[in-house]
Every structure is written in C-alpha cells, then in structure tokens.
Specification:
This protein is of the alpha/beta class. About 30% of the residues lie in helices and about 20% in strands. The protein contains 6 helices and 7 strands; from the N terminus they run βαβαββαβααββα. The strands form 2 sheets. The chain has a 5-stranded parallel sheet. A two-stranded antiparallel ribbon has the order 6-7. Helix 3 crosses helix 5.
Length: about 180
C-alpha cells in the first residue's frame, strides 16, 4: 500500500560525542523528498557538529511542531532533547549517554503517537548508557523495555542474505562460549 504522503522518519541522532550527528546531516542532504526527516537529539550539539559537513548550509532545519505533510529536498525538522553541558567529542560522559537514551525514547514516543512512521538510528556508544546510570546495555534492550517485550533482535539484510545475532551484544571473546546447539 502506497502512503498518500511521504513517510515521516524519526532519525535518532545517536552519540553526540561522536560523528553520528554529522552522518545524519549527510544523510538528510541526500534525501530527494522521498521521506520527511525529523532529527531527534540535542540541538546545541547538532548545530556544532553540522559545521563539519560539506554543504551543510543547504539543509534547512525547522522546529518540529506536529506531523509534517510534505517532503522537500534539503528540509528537515528537529525535536530537541535537552542535555547537560558535559558532552566532549570522543569521550564517554553521563550527559552524552543521557542525550542518546532520551533521544531514543522520544523517537519511539513519536511513533506511538502517530507523529512518525518509523525510526532509524545513527551509531551510539553503549558505555555512555552505563555512565548515565541506565541499566540497558544496547539499543535492543531499550526497545524491548519501551515496548514491554522480552527481547528485541536485529536482522541485517544485503540483497538475499539475512544476518541476525544469536548471542546478542557481547564482547567478541564471549561469542563462542555463548553459542549453544539451540
């Protein structure tokens, strides 16, 4: 079934201390109006990070004030997630973990409220979750808790190849000991 308006996609900006925000700006600049991007993250960090992206000045970013109806090239909307001042590029801090976690929750809220049709997420730093005091160890644990599910798994596709982790997130050294015949 084709949607009458382009889908609204909540883009979780990921770790504000890494390159995730820049990746999202580059992605939005490639959008030809196929979807309506809604960035979810810390606006102050976004404005700093976007300066590193070539042609970033072409991207017009407006406050999110309800579900947008039209997609336009080089137009995105923004949901600001407040955060502390202690976000340093390349360093894990409680504030970067809080911003990442709260951005994920806000994007999922947008979907539940019918304000977004789906979510994509830029890279995160799981250690930042722990630094911020959250018990979840991955984005999958956050999604499972939000939707009150026992577990959430990811399936990655490349043409006709499908891959899913059977061990979940763990250190490489723990993969083989975690495998069972089941």
């Amino acid at each position: 079934m084709k949607m009458s308006t382009p889908p609204v996609v909540a883009i979780i900006l990921g770790d504000p201390a890494g390159s995730s925000y820049e990746l999202c700006v580059m992605t939005a600049l490639q959008n030809q109006g196929d979807y309506i991007p809604v960035f979810v993250g810390n606006r102050r960090r976004f404005d700093i990070s976007r300066q590193a992206v070539k042609d970033q000045e072409l991207l017009q970013v407006y406050p999110f004030e309800g579900r947008p109806q039209t997609a336009e090239k080089n137009v995105a909307y923004f949901v600001d997630v407040e955060g502390g001042e202690d976000v340093q590029f390349g360093k894990v801090t409680p504030d970067s973990g809080k911003i990442t976690y709260e951005s994920m929750i806000k994007a999922l809220d947008l979907c539940q409220e019918g304000l977004a049709d789906g979510v994509i997420m830029a890279p995160i730093t799981k250690n930042a979750f722990h630094a911020a005091g959250y018990e979840e160890d991955s984005e999958f644990a956050v999604f499972a808790k939000f939707y009150n599910l026992p577990a959430v798994k990811s399936v990655v596709t490349a043409n006709s190849i499908y891959r899913a982790s059977v061990t979940g997130h763990c250190a490489f050294k723990d993969i083989v000991p975690s495998l069972t015949t089941e």
